[in-house]
Amino acid sequence: MVIATKLVTALVAFIHIYIFWFEMFAWTTTGRKVFRNFPKDLFEPTKSMAANQGLYNGFLAAGLIWSFFITNIEWSANVALFFLSCVAIAGIYGATTVSKKIFIVQSVPALIGIILWCIIKLA
């Protein structure tokens, strides 16, 4: 169960590393493919705003990765739960303000991770 939980946590971290990368470094190329409904003429003017958002996603990924280096399982779970909760909340907000797809891509994996970590903590 711990392995499955860590795999889900790693998946969420990987998703946010990808988001970090394209928002910080490939907003005007990959960003156009990801956000097809966003007006094409706004990618260049919003490049620094996207980079700022990407930085936040990088912090979420860093926090999740940090949880793998904590040897105490309880503290590892606490750190992972905190960052997974941040991801889930950000995904819920994004789903209500931007696109419902964000809930599926961000919140669902994070919520699965939260459930699995809670099962481990209760066992």
If you had to describe this structure to a student in words, what would you say it looks like?
The protein is mainly α. The protein has one domain (2-122). 80% of the residues lie in helices and 0% in strands. It contains 5 helices and no strands. The longest helix has 25 residues, at 73-97. The model has no long low-confidence stretch (mean pLDDT 95).
Main features:
123 residues; mainly alpha; 5 helices; elongated
- Helical residues, percent: over 70%
> On the 0-100 scale, what is the average pLDDT?
95
- Counting structural domains, the number is 1
- What is the SS-derived class? mainly alpha
Number of strands: 0
> Which ranges are low-confidence, i.e. pLDDT below 50, for 5 or more consecutive residues?
none
Secondary-structure element string: HHHHH
Shape by Cα distribution: elongated
Radius of gyration: 15 Å
Q: How many strands, what sense, and barrel or not for the largest sheet?
A: none
How far apart are the termini?
A: 11 Å
Total helical elements: 5
Strand content: under 5%
SSE layout and pairing:
Layout: H1 2-25, H2 30-34, H3 47-68, H4 73-97, H5 101-122
Compose a concise summary of this entry.
By secondary structure, the chain is an all-alpha fold. The protein contains five helices and no strands.
